[in-house]
Q: What sequence folds into this?
């Protein structure tokens, strides 16, 4: 199966298009044109599973249409989407912010799904999606190191509650480097699909590895690569994998 992980920055673009006429002006611009570019890219990759971070679920930027649903309807996916902020977060009371979400799209049947929430950090959502053989967790970890470590501890506990093979994919914001994950990987037994630690951010000149696809021992990575695509400030991650029968 092929998994695509992509932080699409709500479809708002990157570099000059994002910072003109003023810095960060792109955050408020309409996203229809760039979303179509993203859809064309996803179609060219033809993934079985798509993990999307920073998806607009229906603000004015996307004409009040859910970006995940637009992608799913266009390309023929099932999808799950939820705001990345907890229900008691102040962000849920602010226009635009309350539509900032994460999503999972898949061509497989979804057996079950759960929305978990971290105890710390602003972005607290964990989307767990149970497919036939695997449980996939989509995350967007905190910008604060202390909060990230607490979130990883909770994420470890969540992975212990499934008997399926596990994939954790998302934006981990590991600004101190991938060594932030060493204790987490040791505790969970998960491995990084990006064996050579290729950076993914920023997409125009990648310097840091902050986007990850982690997997359990029963999953074999057949291919992994990061294409040079600049529709967001993050590069997409593409991973072909197989479930190893034991």
A:
């Amino acid at each position: 199966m092929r998994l695509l992980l992509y932080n699409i920055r709500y479809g708002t673009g990157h570099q000059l298009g994002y910072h003109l006429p003023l810095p960060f002006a792109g955050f408020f611009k309409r996203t229809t044109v760039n979303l179509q570019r993203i859809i064309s890219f996803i179609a060219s990759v033809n993934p079985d599973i798509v993990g999307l971070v920073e998806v607009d679920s229906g603000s004015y930027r996307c004409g009040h249409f859910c970006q995940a649903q637009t992608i799913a309807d266009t390309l023929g996916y099932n999808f799950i989407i939820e705001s990345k902020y907890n229900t008691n977060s102040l962000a849920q009371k602010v226009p635009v912010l309350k539509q900032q979400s994460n999503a999972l799209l898949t061509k497989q049947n979804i057996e079950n799904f759960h929305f978990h929430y971290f105890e710390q950090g602003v972005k607290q959502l964990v989307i767990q999606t149970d497919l036939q053989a695997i449980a996939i967790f989509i995350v967007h970890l905190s910008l604060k190191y202390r909060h990230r470590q607490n979130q990883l501890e909770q994420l470890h506990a969540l992975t212990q509650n499934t008997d399926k093979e596990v994939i954790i994919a998302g934006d981990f914001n590991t600004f101190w480097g991938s060594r932030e994950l060493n204790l987490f990987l040791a505790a969970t037994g998960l491995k990084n699909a990006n064996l050579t630690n290729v950076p993914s951010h920023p997409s125009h000149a990648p310097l840091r590895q902050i986007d990850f696809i982690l997997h359990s021992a029963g999953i074999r990575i057949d291919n992994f690569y990061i294409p040079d695509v600049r529709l967001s400030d993050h590069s997409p991650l593409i991973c072909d994998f197989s479930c190893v029968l034991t």
Q: What stands out?
A: Helices lie at 16-19, 32-45, 67-75, 145-159, 182-188. The longest strand covers residues 49-56.
